[in-house]
Amino acid sequence: MDDLDDLAVFHGDADVVRFVPWPVRDRAATEEALRVKLTQTGLVAHGQWLVLAVEVRETGTVIGEVLLKWASHRQGEIGFAFARSHQGRGYAAEAARAMLRLGFDGLGFHRISAVVIDGNDASVRLLGRLGFRQEARLVDGVHFKDRWATQLVLAMLEDEWRERDGAT
Ligand SMILES: CC(C)(COP(=O)(O)OP(=O)(O)OC[C@H]1O[C@@H](n2cnc3c(N)ncnc32)[C@H](O)[C@@H]1OP(=O)(O)O)[C@@H](O)C(=O)NCCC(=O)NCCS
């Protein structure tokens, strides 16, 4: 719960939550969300999300979070959100790579996907840097924040991971 102040900074930022499923959260709503996150500490069954806080090593400030869902048999889904003050510095890529390592090397996943709302260019760029390929573009694939939105499905396979970061 010590992370609440840090979390409230980006959970309450309309720019950060624009393309994620949650609304802009006030402190009370962030606290409620944090209570749920505190239970999401392991991946032992399909359907579970592991949610990890990302800290600046020197200060312990929480600047973002990275998520991994155990979606189905050896399949995962990744997500991330970072405080605006700490975007554009490579932190999200570093955290996402750690999560991919956990998924592919730790849990033996075969494929990890990400579903992005079309227009979330920073997210698509990040996934491209990580080595994700676009698999699909679902026109009006979801009703998202009061409008129909097009979804992009991107993914990486275990072989592709090993050819890149996994080999280093
Ligand atoms: C998606 C999101 C996590 C991407 O964060 P990010 O900080 O842009 O991603 P990275 O950590 O890879 O940082 C890379 C950027 O930092 C720049 N950068 C600066 N210094 C850097 C360094 N030392 N190392 C690496 N990158 C650096 C890169 O050039 C790159 O900028 P670019 O995308 O304009 O080319 C962030 O935009 C976010 O939190 N968005 C809101 C939540 C959201 O939409 N989540 C996704 C839902 S699917």
TrEMBL record:
Entry keywords, A to Z: Transferase
N-acetyltransferase domain segment(s): 1-159
SUPFAM superfamilies according to UniProt: Acyl-CoA N-acyltransferases (Nat)
InterPro entries found in the cross-reference section: Acyl_CoA_acyltransferase (IPR016181), GNAT_dom (IPR000182), N-acetyltransferase (IPR051531)
Keyword Plastid on entry: no
GO molecular function, one term: acyltransferase activity, transferring groups other than amino-acyl groups
Protein name: N-acetyltransferase
